Amino acid sequence: MKIITAERAAELIPSNSNVTVSGLIGNMVPEAILEQLEARFLATGQPRDITEIHPWLYGGPNGTGLNRWAHEGLLKRIIGSTYILPTLSKDSEINQFIFDEKVRAHCWPANAIFQNLRATAGGRKGYLTTIGLDTFADPRRDGGRLNAAAKDDDLIQVVNLDGEEHLYYRSLPINVALIKASTADTEGNLICDDEGLTQGILNQATAAHNSGGIVIAQVRRIVQAGSMHPLMVEVPGVLVDYVVLHEAGLQWDYGANMGDAPATTGARRLPLPDIAYFPHSADKVIARRALMECKPGQVVNIGAGIPGSMMPVTAIEEHLDGKINWSVEHGVFGGHCMSATHWNPTAITSPTWLLDYYNGGGLDQSFLAMPEVDRYGNVNVGKMGGQLPCPGGFTDIATGTKKVTFCGAMTGGNLQVEAEDGTLRIIQEGQHRRFVDDVQMVCFSGRRAVETGQEIKYITERAVFSLTPDGLQLDEVAPGIDVKREVLAAVGFPICISPDLKLMDDRLFRPEPMFLGLD
Questions:
Q1: Residue 275: which pLDDT band, with cuts at 50, 70 and 90?
Q2: N or C: which end of the chain has fewer CB within 10 A?
Q3: CATH number for the domain whose boundaries are 282-509
């Protein structure tokens, strides 16, 4: 292991190489190295024609993370599970770069990337899975391609194994792994003691090392070999070629979580910060109704949007705190869910293992967003007009979970409702429909869900639907809502109405807590 500068690290990355980069938004991003890589390219035009591979979105504010690759000639191809979220930037450079056809852009489910790295590390030809069939990853739809520039890339195939269709991802050699950890010792062993997550850096480092490539790690500190407990080592030093010391690094280098939070790393158990409970609204109605699906002791995943932002806080208000085992795909269990990580987690694991756990049906339930739903029950979270967040772990979670509940308002764009006295009133309808004939990107397949026997619900502020072999079925409607005028007319396709149609619990539409967690 050699200690080098970030500038020297950037010089070690050759043209025409496959580079995998760690990070989640502002956490575990080797930003100092990426900054120097961008500066080198702008000054010299080198390196060129890189294929960049990232399991998670990293970066957010313009000019950070993934956005540093948005220069013509620097990138040839990019493969990721997620790109810049609109909540972080609505005009990010890398997303626009993809829309402008300046790079061959691909999106894979998160676990497909981790498992592909594992296949490379293990000397296997590729990765087989049923996850993602009949979604954007299926070659009979998009084959993981995000733009026309990628039309000649055939990176995913459909194969038949024991009479069942699978998606096959051919393994890719990794020439360079750019990763970040908190601490390195003088032998190159890496630990993530200040990070709160591990982000699969071991998979990335092993794939690069066993491909004959190099591993470059950015760290906050270097300590004497033998001074770290061996059980804490995330990446053994035998895999690490170079270390870049960047003492100014933080757990979250930028974004809403910027700084260090010891209560999210396991270093401290601290009382929850003062929580501002959400005012009564359409979103809170949805979060409450979603919580009514939960049972004590269940292992539950919550995704972005209403589930991640509203359900944990509402669960505390409803006396469900400690009765639900929250989990997010980045590797965390227990404690209070804070979207990307948890406050006072009970376990911090590898996302590669956790996504396997999800894929194999380990979750009891998952609650996910639904920006678009179509007549087949398909859900899109990946592509909305000029925004390109892509699904991340969404497809892994939605495909592998026994029971999935999608959560979102019936219409989007300035929807205004009034919920009081046990009834709901639409003051102003949203400007666009969420229930459409065909979604822009199939991130969850309704057809596959019916075939595999999943239980699927769609919860809105005014109605609850379920997925049947014949499509969506209306099961519940809010008190005060006209079914024909305010539900059926807001859906862009025909749906059936349950013969047992019932009213949603009127407590949902009162400001006081429902006390769901009390006997």
A1: confident
A2: C
A3: 3.40.1080.10
